[in-house]
Specification:
Elements (H helix, E strand, L loop, with lengths): L2 H13 L12 H30 L6 E2 L2 E3 L4 E3 L29 E7 L5 E8 L2 E5 L2 E5 L5 E6 L3 E3 L10
Antiparallel strand pairs: 1-2, 2-3, 4-5, 5-6, 7-8, 8-9
Length: about 170
């Protein structure tokens, strides 16, 4: 191609109106994009509303959840509660002047274990009765006087009077 042909071609192109190309999304693609953005916003609002509803129904607060409160000494549970799995606790107390009530459909077991997880003492109350296993079993009066004691070597009755009913 010669130089004259190149200038002629440039003159022809420059004499025409410049073409404007649309850049962006137009038509049905734009409508689909807006639809998906709107759908996403609706889902976000529904998710936020359900999260707030769950927090309100479960009574979540800064102090804890429901009747379970977090205190400096540990967890504080107020009211009746149900445990589906075993409960492990260092200490269980009732409010001052209120009884501690434990209820079970089978039994209530209290196990004392050592650092190697070996059973040292066990207390089981159930429908068949009351069982205690350990090295020593003692019953004392409110004043601290020994009323009954039993270990592997001997059984001691410390009451002033011993009354045996039956044969």
């Amino acid at each position: 191609m010669t130089q004259e042909q190149c200038t002629h071609r440039n003159n022809v192109q420059s004499s025409e109106k410049p073409q404007v190309y649309k850049v962006g999304i137009y038509g049905w693609r734009k409508r689909c994009l807006y639809f998906f953005v709107l759908l996403l916003m609706i889902l976000i609002l529904i998710n936020l509303a359900l999260t707030i509803w769950i927090l309100k129904v479960m009574n979540f607060t800064i102090d804890g959840m429901g009747k379970l409160r977090i205190t400096e000494k540990g967890l504080k549970l107020e009211g009746a509660s149900e445990f589906l799995e075993p409960l492990y606790a260092k200490e269980i107390q009732s409010k001052p002047g209120r009884p501690l009530f434990l209820q079970s459909s089978r039994n209530v077991s209290v196990n004392i274990v050592n650092s190697k997880n070996q059973l040292l003492t066990q207390l089981v109350t159930g429908s068949s009765g009351f069982k205690a296993k350990g090295k020593l079993f003692e019953v004392k009066s409110t004043s601290g006087k020994l009323l009954f004691s039993a270990d592997e070597q001997e059984v001691v009755v410390g009451a002033e009077r011993l009354r045996v009913m039956g044969e």
